[in-house]
Fold this sequence. Notes:
With 336 residues, the protein is mainly beta.
Amino acid sequence: MISYSALVSIDEVTRTFLQKQGYTLYLFKGINAGSGATSTVWLTLTGNQLYDQASNNITWYEDYYIGEESVEIQNGASVSGINPYANPQSILSVSLGQNYTFPGTAWDQQSSGQPIDTAFTILNQEPAVNNFYVSQKVTSGPNDYIVVTELAGSGGLGTFTPIETIALILSTQPYSTGTMITEAFSPGAIVTLAGITQASLAYDMNTGWSATAGQLTTLEIGNSVYDSMLTSANTALAAAGGRPGGRLLGAALTNGGKTNSKNKVEGVNLKGVSGTQYSTTSKVTVRRGDGKDEKYAHVLMTDQTDTDIKLGSGVYHVTNNSGGTINYSWLSNADK
């Protein structure tokens, strides 16, 4: 199991200031859970741990847990964690390349293989929209919640791709771990471990955040914490060479599903899923831009499809009416 860490250093003068003002350091952990997900407070540092130590080394592993969540997704709500996989008496971590099915009430105890070996999936078979959470172990799981998302009923599929990105916010506002945060409540910083396993950051009360290891970006107050981490991860991976062929983070998209790149990209790769019987008439629609500048492409999918759609730089929209689940990845500047 791969270990990752971020060393957070704060000088003594700054720590004295933070203590006097009553600051807490809030940390969030990134994961690509598709559009519309919400980050939760992953870890907090305060008291002696924050004020009396020159540095804190935060360590985590590729060790994920999942669960069905009854609490409504809204800012300030807290994850309950009362319906974990496999069951409350036997909480098990999940594995990449596997699918986990929720038929309703209780989890299917047996996972099954799925074609994306860099992600795990959750299939919501109950005929109702349900919320699901993911937690990632810091030092001991499984209650270190990182994200919540909702999935459509009767076959809604969620794809979760790990990214080694964390966000940090110093604030006097009180939040506990597991609290859902839709918007950054104070300015902060985001660091992505692109091609490395150890990041190193420092905070100064005058100059703010800096990093000597890891790709650092700013987190603006009012911005979505989840979307900001995803964007930063894409940018950092592209700068570091990205995924093979310049592909950025993507996911699976079920039939009837829609998604968009949120930020400017150079295109999208569409890939069929082996063994899937796609429609011979209905297609995947790709649109770049809005209004007068729109450009379109329509792709008839097979389980052997692996094609790049490039309509120029811009925000891309994908609508899947192919009759089956597809895989997509946004294309970076490396593919121009």
